[in-house]
Amino acid sequence: MSPQVKSKMVKKKTGKLKAKSTQKTAKGKKWVYLFDEVKAAEKYTGNWEGVRSLLGGKGSGLADMTRAGVPVPPGFTITTEACNWFRKTGNFPPGMWDQALAALKVTEKRAGKKFGDPKNPLLVSCRSGAKFSMPGMMNTILNIGLNDEVVEGLAKLSNNPRFAWDSYRRLIEMFGATVFNLDDEHFEHPMAEHKARKGYKSDTEMTAEDWRELVSVFKEVFKKQVGFDFPQDVYKQMEFATKAVFESWNGKRAIDYRRATGISDDLGTAVNIVTMVFGNMGDDSGTGVAFTRNPSTGDKLMMGEYLLNAQGEDVVAGIRNADPIEHLKEQMPKAYKEFMGITGKLEKHYKDMQDVEFTIERGKLWMLQTRNGKRTAKSTVKIAVDMAKEKLITKEDAVLRVTPENVDSLLHPQFDESAMKKAENDGAFFAKGVNASPGAAVGQVYFDADTTEKMTKEHKQDTIMVRPFTKPDDVHGMIASQGVLTSEGGATSHAAVVARQFGIPCVVGASSIKIDLENRQMTVGDVVVKEGEWISVDGNTGKVFLGKIPTSAPSLEEQTDLLTLLKWADEICARKDIRKVPNGWPTRGLQVWANADYPKDAQRARSYGAVGIGLCRTEHMFFEPERLPIVQRMILAGPGAERNQALDELLPYQRKDFDGLFEAMDGYPVIIRLIDPPLHEFMPDEEKLLEEVITMRVKGESDGLQAKEDLLTSIKGMHESNPMMGLRGVRLSISIPEIVEMQVRAIFEAAADCTLRKIKVKPEVMIPLTGTVKELEWIQPRLERIASAVMEEKKIKFEYKFGTMIEIPRAAVTAAEIAGHAEFFSFGTNDLTQMTYGYSRDDAERNFLITYQEQGILEKNPFQTIDRGGVGKLMQMAIVDGRKTRPNLEVGICGEHGGDPDSVEWCHMIGNNYVSCSPFRVPIARLAAAHSALKHAGSKIAEDK
Ligand code: PEP
Ligand code: MG
């Protein structure tokens, strides 16, 4: 290496020299871009993303519109790079101001006006504009270029002295407030005084002379507060304004906004200097705002309003009643025609509904802004579907434009947003918990399931069931209610799971609520809600309000656009080879199945687009009032004739249940899980029973006492310290095989009967909570023998499968062995998460999960969204190992995560065949599955890593 080069390198390392050398290049650097110089910006930055970073959202939009031939008032953008230089050094970068003045000269020429010339003045606005929209968070100064002389000229030229003097006072006021941070108070006070003196009620009564007088007052205020005269040099005005906009990047409002939205502090803002155009130059002028399609319904009809002879802020402030945009057709046919042509072009250019601002100055139309318009979920779907039908976008684009949250909000009754805000302002907020099941519910509060059911059914009331937590024997109350509220439990608590399953809005774990079951009331601080009083529960936000908030309820069948969109989503998922996978793995996208226990849930699941039942929790059927006594008798009997007798009584019930499910699913697979919960869940509550026994003993009542005492002894015998890790799942089946033998017989008899009735069936028997293959080796052959026996008895054959849930980490780790027996895996991610983390699924949210999220220890609630790094990895390993043994192993998920979009994506990535979720979440999962398929199309599915 030559010594020369070496010394250069050393020098480069010193900060001072480096700054010097950059400064050298800074002078030659382009800091300012005219609106028609977008090509140069593209060349410099390499792509459109880069142009947006350099010129900001507003600047790049104005440049893009200029390129598309849209009439945009002439102007230029000073780059975000200049802002960042200014923020570091406190000065404009060398050469920047000269470039700005040169651009202003071109702007003057294009506008046919001259900056500071009283005879034909050019006025400009100085507008902030960062890469990402930060509405109202930074500064903007209008009417720059007015001074004592120019205002007279403008008054003459416009033939409207009132407008000229009003514009001038606005400039002084804005300059004081935004450039010199003066309190608005300094200007508002003299103005209020002036109006009071004249007896005016509103600004519209102010005359030209009034504004002229106020200008003098404002100038005095300015001098007193700032220490020098309001600058008459228009170039100085522009310089001050530019610096103020740069500085506003570091204003408190802007910093707070960036913190809240995650926008980086390093981006900086651009400054846009734009020729002012005026809609208040007479009756051939006007200003307005419009959406190219209806933002609330999505209808393909321009929706907007305008005011003749007015300024933009008059439309926004609603001082005068604006006219619907259609009236412009009669009032200014030429401008209207041009406007419709331009907005049509803009929609085609941006391929989306546009939200535009425009001004007509003496018959000439100017477009001031265009951006993709904000819209409701309903209109998001309609616009996406319509635009795909119009061939403006592809079906894939349409599917990607709608979020799973959009779909969610379309399917549940919603509270009216403004009503909810009002309730909050009126002090009706009561408590907040975990938003366990979406939708809005309004009803009268009842504190137990029986009363809730009674008040709903007999008294025809809308009810909310409130409990500390729920248990299986509360389900009838939950189903009867409009909504459920608990003070304990989390996203996978019983209340949450059941509520989602039945589409009941539900908030759980609202721990600030103290429920006093004895006095039939609940309290938060001093606020008391007594039984029978009205509350509103919002399952979307987890908020609970006192009193009634209005709701509206949509239905899927009526939402034809959503149905079309979901059909397209299914088509995308059905594409063969959309997943690049190892041999034998599913090459199509994910299917969506549903968790359903009863035929009516299965029917709903199908109408929502499910193509299988991924989980039927058979134990739910055991809780029905006429069956529970038989179940209890069966449990208490112990092995032998009496137990078998009880099981014989249960068999026809179960057969009927399954028959109904098969019929509803008509040939789609139906996974029936064998009994899972510990037996004590089916027995009366131990504490309550003990209380009864003690009371009877104290009162000396002997009738029935012995039976109660025996029952109590049996229940005590069933007690376990950790029942979720105790005698449940396959362990229970091995301890008392008679129960599952009855269940398998019922499944196969029902399947055979359906087949005889020409209904196609595909039963899949699922063994829960397997931890070692030896458990399957023990139980599965016994059950398979029953299946064969029934088919032989009925002289019929049909397709069926035996498989297992993977919900214990050991099962995932030993999946290769387990797949030797199981023909399918279904991830029970509720238990798998519980056991992988060692967090109790019933208590964790209430006790520490929320704190963990707040402290950043957990990014997301792992009971709602699969923890990809831990639980997810176990799933991935289980699939890879399982398919090494059985390449066509069917894999699904039936934990609560099956309806969560992020978890659906993970299931796609690791090669699941399907996800199964509550019927109400099926549409969301269908869309999420299509999103995943599109996002990962062509990329290889990760095997093991
Ligand atoms: C699970 O554990 O994910 C599951 C579906 O089973 P359950 O919630 O009934 O325990
Ligand atoms: Mg489970």
Global shape: elongated
The proportion of residues forming helix, as a percent range, comes to 40-55%
Indicate the mean pLDDT: 90
Give the number of helices. 39
How many DSSP E strands? 33
Query: In percent terms, what proportion of residues is strand?
Result: 15-25%
Q: Biggest β-sheet: count, sense, barrel?
A: 8 strands, mixed
The secondary structure category is alpha/beta
Low-confidence stretches: 1-24
Identify the bound ligands: phosphoenolpyruvate, magnesium ion
Gyration radius over CA: 35 Å
Q: What is the rounded distance between the termini?
A: 44 Å
Strand order across the largest sheet? 14-24-23-16-17-18-19-15
How does this structure look, described?
The protein is of the alpha/beta class and 945 residues long. The strands form seven sheets. An eight-stranded mixed sheet has the order 14-24-23-16-17-18-19-15. It has an eight-stranded parallel sheet with strand order 32-31-30-29-28-27-26-33. It has a five-stranded antiparallel sheet with strand order 1-2-7-5-6, sandwiched between helices. The longest helix has 25 residues. It starts with a helix and ends in a 9-residue tail after the last helix. The N terminus is likely disordered. Bound molecules: phosphoenolpyruvate and magnesium ion. Magnesium ion binds next to helix 35.
Topology:
Blueprint: H1 3-13, H2 15-28, E1 32-34, H3 38-45, H4 48-67, E2 75-78, H5 80-89, H6 96-111, E3 114-115, E4 121-122, E5 124-130, E6 140-144, H7 148-158, H8 161-179, H9 185-198, H10 208-226, H11 234-248, H12 252-261, E7 269-275, E8 286-291, E9 303-308, H13 312-317, E10 323-324, H14 328-331, H15 333-350, E11 354-361, E12 364-372, H16 377-389, H17 395-401, H18 404-411, E13 414-415, H19 417-425, E14 429-432, E15 434-437, E16 440-446, H20 449-457, E17 463-467, H21 475-480, E18 483-486, H22 494-502, E19 506-508, E20 514-516, E21 521-524, E22 527-530, E23 534-538, E24 543-546, E25 551-552, H23 560-574, E26 591-595, H24 599-607, E27 613-617, H25 619-622, H26 628-637, H27 641-665, E28 669-673, H28 686-699, H29 705-718, H30 730-735, H31 737-756, E29 762-767, H32 773-794, E30 801-806, H33 809-813, H34 815-818, E31 824-827, H35 829-837, H36 844-854, H37 868-885, E32 890-893, H38 901-910, E33 914-917, H39 922-936
Parallel strand pairs: 3-4, 16-17, 17-18, 18-19, 26-27, 26-33, 27-28, 28-29, 29-30, 30-31, 31-32
Antiparallel strand pairs: 1-2, 2-7, 5-6, 5-7, 8-9, 8-11, 9-10, 11-12, 13-25, 14-24, 15-19, 16-23, 20-21, 21-22, 23-24
Helix pairs in contact: 3-4, 7-8, 8-10, 9-10, 16-17, 16-18, 16-23, 17-23, 18-39, 23-39, 24-27, 26-27, 27-31, 28-29, 31-32, 38-39
